[in-house]
Design a protein that fits this description.
Elements: E1 2-7, H1 10-14, E2 30-36, E3 39-45, E4 51-54, H2 55-59, H3 66-82, H4 96-112, E5 117-120, H5 124-134, E6 139-143, E7 152-153, E8 156-160, H6 161-171, E9 174-178, H7 181-184, H8 187-197, E10 201-204, H9 209-215, E11 219-220
Parallel strand pairs: 5-6, 5-9, 6-8, 9-10, 10-11
Antiparallel strand pairs: 1-2, 1-4, 2-3, 7-8
Helix pairs in contact: 4-5, 6-8
Length: about 230
């Protein structure tokens, strides 16, 4: 079985959203799309690459860098979609990211009832909706982008995700964590801290679709496609 993968342009990945502060549109991230037969899978990465070859060759990747991990997760998402084991493996478009943020924040408010919320990975639409709904004092955010770290967004300071993610986990009643942590190599220590503290976590985004299914993690991606 052949995997065909390539990085998408911002317009291909997210369309024309009303707001322009998404990392995809600022050139900070790209979406890699993998296709197996007609099934598509997406994953975010800061180092996209192309690939065409058999699944067996892809499975031999060392996964020691973000280029290989992004490709691997996109292909996993496509494979699990092809097998009918997951859905929602294609990124949402146009104004859907803002609708997605509203639905995730509503889930936190009406079903999870977290008083203190951690957001790992600065998603501007989700951060703004959480701050609006719960107040900046109840929200903490970490990110890896140097342009975000140390800034104040929607009344919330952005902490360094390399050094303060575990601190965020200890502070929060629950954490929303981007699936991109699986690509950038930060997932394992964060998850270990969550298990040690008993802090509940939910992954969000298309990147984690297959991995969340495989390991039984909860994932929220209400406006994804595919």
């Amino acid at each position: 079985m052949t995997v065909r993968a390539r990085p998408l342009s911002p317009e291909e990945a997210i369309g024309e959203p009303g707001r322009r502060d998404f990392p995809l549109l600022r050139g900070k991230e790209r979406v890699v799309e993998a296709i197996i037969e007609e099934a598509r899978g997406h994953a975010f990465t800061d180092s996209p690459r192309e690939f065409t070859g058999p699944v067996e060759e892809l499975l031999e990747l060392p996964l020691s860098n973000t280029r290989d991990r992004g490709l691997y997760l996109a292909a996993m998402n496509a494979a699990f979609r092809y097998a009918g084991r997951v859905s929602g493996t294609v990124h949402c478009r146009d104004d859907d990211p803002e609708r997605c943020a509203i639905r995730i924040a509503a889930r936190v408010e009406t079903q999870l009832h977290w008083r203190k919320i951690g957001l790992i990975g600065f998603n501007p639409a989700l951060a703004e909706e959480l701050a609006r709904r719960f107040g900046a004092a109840r929200l903490r955010i970490t990110d890896l982008d140097p342009d975000n770290i140390g800034t104040d967004r929607f009344g919330v300071p952005i902490w360094d995700g390399e050094s303060r993610a575990e601190e965020l986990v200890r502070w929060a009643d629950g954490v929303l964590m981007t699936g991109t942590t699986l690509v950038n190599g930060t997932f394992d220590p964060i998850w270990e801290e969550m298990e040690a503290t008993g802090t509940p976590a939910i992954l969000f985004g298309v990147t984690a679709a297959a991995m969340a299914h495989l390991f039984g993690f909860e994932r929220l991606c209400p406006c994804s496609r595919g």
